[in-house]
């Protein structure tokens, strides 16, 4: 039987989730610079794996009819371009926890430590009908644990 390597999921160190990505040809524009929307894709992957590492099963909640997380608010700033083949570290921090939402701050850092982009998100838990809903208590405890870590 062929072994199947686990996809990268990053790691949580204290309050920060760290997730590494590489800028591939498909991520760049004609000039070899990472296209601005791809930072959003990288941030989404990092947030999803951060939540997964917290023990939150979003798929089961969605399939069970409880609801799902949705981006409710987003602001992003671009500081410097990433280029083809660059290694980029996405850092995610939970900054505020509410009954139905969570605020997160994410940074994309070049392998030399330079800030490439940063974004602030508010993700809300919504019922299948799209209305805000209090997130499950276990999820809030998981977020609270990493929010107060330190």
Report what the structure shows.
The protein has 150 residues and is an alpha+beta fold. Helices cover 23% and strands 36% of the residues. The chain is built from three helices and six strands. The chain has a six-stranded antiparallel sheet. A hairpin with a 2-residue loop joins strand 1 (11-13) and strand 2. It is globular and about 45 Å long. It starts with 10 loop residues before the first strand and ends with a helix. 26% of the residues are buried.
What is this structure's SSE topology?
Blueprint: E1 11-13, E2 16-22, H1 37-53, H2 58-63, E3 68-78, E4 87-97, E5 101-110, E6 115-126, H3 137-147
Strand order of the largest sheet: 1-2-4-5-6-3
Question: Alpha-carbon distance between the termini?
Answer: 43 Å
**What percent strand?**
35-45%
Radius of gyration (CA) equals 16 Å
Tell me, briefly, the overall form.
globular
Poorly predicted segments: none
Structural class: alpha+beta
Sheet with the most strands? 6 strands, antiparallel
Oligomer: single chain
- The helix content is 10-25%
């Amino acid at each position: 039987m062929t072994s199947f390597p686990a996809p990268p999921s990053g790691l949580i160190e204290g309050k920060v989730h760290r997730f590494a990505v590489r800028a591939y040809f498909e991520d760049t524009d004609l000039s070899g610079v990472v296209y601005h929307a791809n930072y959003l894709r990288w941030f989404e992957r990092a947030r999803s794996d951060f939540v997964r590492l917290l023990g939150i099963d979003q798929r089961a909640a969605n399939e069970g009819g409880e609801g799902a997380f949705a981006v409710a608010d987003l602001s992003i700033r671009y500081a410097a371009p990433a280029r083809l083949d660059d290694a980029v570290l996405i850092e995610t921090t939970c900054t505020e926890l509410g009954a139905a939402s969570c605020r997160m701050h994410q940074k994309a850092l070049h392998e030399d430590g330079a800030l490439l982009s940063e974004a602030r998100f508010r993700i809300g838990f919504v019922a299948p009908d799209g209305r805000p809903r209090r997130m499950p208590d276990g999820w809030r405890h998981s977020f609270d644990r990493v929010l107060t870590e330190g």
